[in-house]
Structures are given as structure tokens and as C-alpha cells.
């Protein structure tokens, strides 16, 4: 069995998208992260783990899942130094997963969304592939040379933004707007990396130091 993990968090979750994603992908672990439990309950999917304080969840839903012996439950207190998603990611890393996908990481709360993007550093530093996805976007972190296959790209648009203060020696090959030994900085080049496109079946990203946020996007 694969060792992949899906986390359904408390942000915006489109039910049909979640159902389709689960039909097309297999996961060994499914984490219900706080209000993400409601999204999974709505489509009748049993998580392997529950993480959160669950104060905003209807008591009948919460209790029925908490009493299920097949679910590992981690109840958190509301006042804590990390987010529910961060706590869940740390748990998944300890389980030794090879990939983490987060649905419900986007939503109306920009602070939570931005925190979720930064939290991707935890699995990234552990050598674990991690993504935030919704109907339009797939967000991941890049800090080493890698290739992108057009056939596996999430959408036609690929944007790069610096996560660390500087990202040096960035070269892009096979892109509409190529780069060579460029330095991204959080204090400049605000739009330079936005809305690039692939021009070949296989494109290359090369980085000397730092971490880039990579956003693959479809037409909204």
C-alpha cells in the first residue's frame, strides 16, 4: 500500500472536488483536521485520524467519530502555539509518510491560508513531498533542482514566489519566460515570477539556495 496522507482541513472544501480527488487518488492515511471532519462526514468518508479542538463541530458528528475505535483521535486545546494543520503535519511526519496533500488549506481566513503555506516547510525539510490543493491551485515548495512534466502539471500557469528572504541562482528552462542565475528577494521582484507557462514537455528548475513557493494554477 502507498504511504500517502490526505489532510482535510477547516478551510473551503468543495464537496464534488473532494469526492473526485478521493476517487482518483489512494491514501493510506486520511486526517480530519478540525472542521475538515464535517467535509468528510458529508461524503461518508471515515478518516484514520482526527486532529483539532472540534468545538465548532456538531456534537453528534464529533461524538460518533470520536467513539469509532478505528479512528485515532487527538483533541487539542484552542489556546496553543501551533495551528491544527501544523500539529497534524507533525503527526504525519512522525508516521513516516512519503507525501502529504492538504485540501481545505485555502479559505476566507487569509492568516490561516498563509500559515498553511509556511507550514509546508515542515514536511519539505523532512524530505516529504507536500501540497495544498483546491479546484484551481496546487501549491508546493521547491529548494533543489527538479523537473516538471507538462503531462503532470496541475494547470497551464506556474508562478514562483520567494518564501525565504532570498532565493539565489534560479534558472528556468522550458518556460515561456526563462531565467538564468536570477535572485528572487522578498523585498523586490514582486510580480516577476507570476504566471509563467511551460513551452516544452519537460521543464527544469535550478536553485542554488533558498526556497521558492511554486503555484500551479488552472483557469478559474
Write a concise synopsis of the structure shown.
The chain has helices at 15-24, 36-42, 59-66, 84-95, 110-119, 121-125; strands at 4-8, 29-33, 49-52, 72-75, 99-103, 129-133, 137-142, 146-149, 157-162, 166-173, 179-185, 196-197, 202-206, 212-217. With 220 residues, it is an alpha/beta fold. Strand 2, helix 2 and strand 3 form a beta-alpha-beta unit.
Structure write-up:
By secondary structure, this protein is of the alpha/beta class. It has helices spanning 15-24, 36-42, 59-66, 84-95, 110-119, 121-125, and strands at residues 4-8, 29-33, 49-52, 72-75, 99-103, 129-133, 137-142, 146-149, 157-162, 166-173, 179-185, 196-197, 202-206, 212-217. A 10-stranded mixed β-sheet has the order 4-3-2-1-5-6-7-14-9-12, sandwiched between helices. A 4-stranded antiparallel β-sheet has the order 8-13-10-11, with no helix packed on it.
Amino acid at each position: 500500500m502507498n504511504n500517502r496522507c490526505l489532510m482535510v482541513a477547516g478551510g473551503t472544501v468543495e464537496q464534488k472536488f473532494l469526492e473526485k480527488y478521493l476517487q482518483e487518488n489512494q491514501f493510506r492515511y486520511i486526517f480530519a483536521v478540525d472542521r475538515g471532519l464535517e467535509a468528510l462526514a458529508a461524503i461518508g468518508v471515515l478518516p484514520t485520524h482526527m486532529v483539532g479542538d472540534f468545538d465548532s463541530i456538531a456534537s453528534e458528528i464529533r461524538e460518533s467519530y470520536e467513539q469509532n475505535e478505528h479512528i485515532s483521535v487527538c483533541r487539542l486545546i484552542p489556546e496553543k502555539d501551533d495551528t491544527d494543520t501544523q500539529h497534524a503535519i507533525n503527526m504525519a511526519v512522525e508516521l513516516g509518510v512519503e507525501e502529504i496533500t492538504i485540501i481545505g488549506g485555502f479559505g476566507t481566513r487569509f492568516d490561516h491560508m498563509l500559515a498553511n503555506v509556511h507550514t509546508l516547510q515542515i514536511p519539505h525539510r523532512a524530505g516529504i513531498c507536500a501540497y495544498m490543493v483546491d479546484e484551481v491551485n496546487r501549491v508546493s515548495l521547491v529548494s533543489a533542482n527538479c523537473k516538471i512534466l507538462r503531462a503532470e502539471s496541475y494547470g497551464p500557469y506556474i508562478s514562483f514566489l520567494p518564501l525565504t528572504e532570498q532565493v539565489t541562482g534560479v534558472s528556468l528552462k522550458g518556460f515561456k519566460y526563462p531565467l538564468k542565475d536570477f535572485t528572487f528577494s522578498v523585498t523586490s521582484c514582486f510580480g516577476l515570477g507570476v504566471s509563467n507557462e511551460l513551452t516544452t514537455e519537460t521543464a527544469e528548475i535550478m536553485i542554488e539556495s533558498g526556497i521558492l513557493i511554486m503555484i500551479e494554477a488552472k483557469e478559474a
